[in-house]
Structures are given as structure tokens and as C-alpha cells.
Amino acid sequence: MSAQDDFLKTIISHSKEYGFIFPSSEIYDGLSATYDYGQYGKELKNNIEEYWWKSMVRMHDNIVGIDSAIFMHPTVWKASGHVDAFNDPLIDNKDSKKRYRADVLIEEHIEKIRNKVHKEVEKAAKRFGDAFNMNQFRSTNPRVVEYDRQIEEIENRMRQALESGDLQALKQLILDLEIADPISGTRNWTDVRQFNLMFATELGSVSGEASVIYLRPETAQGTYINFLNVQRSGRMKIPFGICQIGKAFRNEIIARQFIFRMREFEQMEMQFFVRPGEEMEWYSYWKEARMKWHRNLGMGDGLYRYHDHIKLAHYANAACDIEFDFPMGFKELEGIHSRTDFDLKAHEKYSGRKQQYFDAELNQNYIPYVVETAIGLDRMFMSVLSASYADEKLSDGSERTVMRIPAQLAPVKIAVLPLVKKDGMPEKALEVYHKLKLEVNCQYDDKDAIGRRYRRQDAIGTPYCITIDQETLDKQTVTLRERDSMQQERIGIENLVSTVTEKTSITKLLTKLS
After folding, report:
1. CATH 3.40.1580.10 fits domain 87-194
2. So what's the pLDDT on residue 210?
3. I want to staple 409 with a disulfide (CB 3.0 to 4.6 A). Which of 27, 47, 293, 430 is the partner?
């Protein structure tokens, strides 16, 4: 088992033990690829949503939010192309009986070659020190040049196969690259087949063909069909955006890797409507803005990278992912897409109702182009968990598990701990707790020794603990302990609310984005 697999198992185990995420329906032996968010998971999820929503809606005068229905008229999905084109190319290994996405197998093979390049560059950088010129090395070192040539050739073959829908060529590429099943180790592959990912059900009150209805596979279409409703009721002027947070459902044949890929998941999407011809300018803007939003959390700039799409979706003229270094390697965290006017034009065609905007400055009607930013809330949650988790050996020889969740996102902001359960300390601690809980999510804990209580709070990511002791009773001061450094300071009770609020408020993160 690899170190990556071990770390992923550690995250899964910690999430269950400390109330972040539970396997769904566990008392009935569970349901594949479905999870329930526990008491701390729900709080963390809420805080991530708040950070995203406020950064999009509150910080932009031309972006608003909606909440559209999960069920929509079935023609919506015909117009969007999902009925005909929402497919994954899947391949089975005959020995392990496991199913994989063919393109993902190839991308993982490419990533292995990229890692070889990275190791060569690292070795050269150590050897040459300050005199190292990375661009020159990459363009002249024979081994690296060959690796880059291999990557380019593989990407070109995969792009051609995907764009032409040539599933046999996709399988042949897997065979030529000698890609083996990670479980069985064999190359005994079936043909590649396409699977539609939409969940279909029936709406009982409608007869005939229209009785087939779908669980939405994305929230974006709910935004497009409300484009004119929002524009007219809000008197919005191009450029403007519409945000939405909501559940989506995909019949993933290969749902795995914890909450990274599930059949029921949550999206945070923004559709930004622009003048035709200005979409690439806004695409670049949102590409940079979204990367800044992620890095603003301070979890490490090296955890993120851009990845341009090899194959563009049928609606796009440009697309890239912001990838995060998850326990299983760099994977998509957020997508930025220039969707052209495909969606609004398609809905105009299928509905028979004009979806045009009158631009008073240009004195003309047109169908706007759209730039989309789409982030998986569950994947964002997983990125925070994996970046925050650490097992530490302390200077006194003891160990602790700590979740260094950014203070603004932490499920519990502060824990109130009486030093001992006597001498009036619990009563004073409860008084402080009831004062704080009106402002921030806090927790009262008087069970076990103070050191054990600190460790419990470290394990759920609580950034601050305050201890009520004899000096509190005498001088109205408390000990404020910071999670990451474990440093302590005395602070007056009268300053507690303002201090904790300032240190943990989402506003602090948003101010850094301004």
C-alpha cells in the first residue's frame, strides 16, 4: 500500500472519529459513495460556503445569488446536451472486475512521467545551486526533453481520440502505454464504452414522454433558464454574474476516493454573462481571481496548480482546472470555463423564447457569452481536511494530532475550559461561554485533565482555547492558547469577544482579497 493510500485512510478514519464525516446508512452496512456530514463537518461546510458566497456576492456589486429547483423540465437537459453527450468513456479490467475512466487512466500515466521530470529538475537544482537555470535545463537535458516529447505525444493522441469519439483509439493508447490495472496488475482490458451519467426518474402526474425527469447533474442550467428573470427583476447590466450553491447528482460508475467523487454532491457555481468578444478577457480575470481565493486561505501555494483541458466540452472555447494536491495526487478542485453562448442559444431554440439582452450602450440585442466558475464543495472540504491534518512530535517527547484548519473556517472557533471542576471555576467558565456563544461557535469542556482537553480541541481544529483559573476569579483575565504554536497569553475577559471575533471572522479573509 502506498503512502498516499495510507494518508487517505488516515483522513477517512479521523473524519469519522471526530465527527466530520460518517459513512451513510452505516447501520445497514452503508451505501456505496454516499456520506453524511457530522456535527463538525456541517459547521466546516457552512463556513466554506460563507467564504465563497460572500467573496462572490457581497464583494461584487454586479453578482447576485439564486437557488433553483433540483427537478426541471426534461427538455432543459435535451437543450443543454446532457441527454445526448453527458457520457464518460469507461473501461473494465477482466481480472479485477474493476471499472475505470479511460481518460483518467491515461492522465495518471502522464502524471507519472511529469513526476519523473520534476525529480530530474530537483536533482539538477541541488547540484547547480544558485547557478541553476530551469528553463535552459528543461530545454537541453536529453532525458527531460524525451519525457516532454512523450507527454505531448500522449496528450495529442488522447485529444484526437476524445474529440472524434474514437473509443477503439482510446483503448489502443492504453494498450500501447502498457497501463496496468492498479489492483490486479494485469493489462486484460475490455473495450471502452460510453455511459450516460444522469439519474432518470419519473414524474407521476405527467403522462407520456414527458414523464421521464432527471435529477440535475449540475446547477448551471437552473441559472441559465432564470437568466432573464434575474436580469429584468434586478435591472442587471452586462457584465453581471449569478451564483448558486446546491446539490447535483451523477450516476458515477466509478465513485471512489472518499468524498472526492460521489453520486450526490454539492456545487458552488457562478455564471458570469459578458459581451460576445470579451469572454477571453473575463476568462483570464476569473482564472486569476479564483486561484487567489484558494491561496488566500494560507494552506500553501504549492498545493495548487492550473491544468488546461486537453479536450474541450461541446459548449466551451476555453477551459482549465485549478488542481489541488489531494492525498491521491493533483486532481481537479475547481473548473473555469468559457462556455460561449451555447447554453442560452440552446434554450432559446428549444423553448422558443428569446434569451437576448438589450445593450443600451451598444444599442443592440445579443445573446451574452458566459464564463463559469464551478467548485465542488465536497472537494473543497476534502482539500481543507487533507491540507490541515498533521501528526506532530512535541519538544517534551509527547505527540498530538492537529487539524490546522484556517481559523476563519474552523468548525469551533474557541473552547472554554475551566482548569478544575471546583473553586467556582466551572461557574465562571459557563458565564464566559454563554457570553461568547452569541458571537462565535464555541464549546464548553470540563472533562479530563486540561492537557487531554487541549488535544481534543487540536484534533477538531479549534484555533483558540481559553482556560479559566484562579487568576480569572481574582483579576478577570483568562489564558488564551493558540492551536498551531501552542503559545499562551493572558487577556482580559472584557476583550475576549472583540479579540476572538477579529481573529476568526470571515471578514478577515475577505479583507485580504480586496
Report:
1. no
2. 52
3. 47
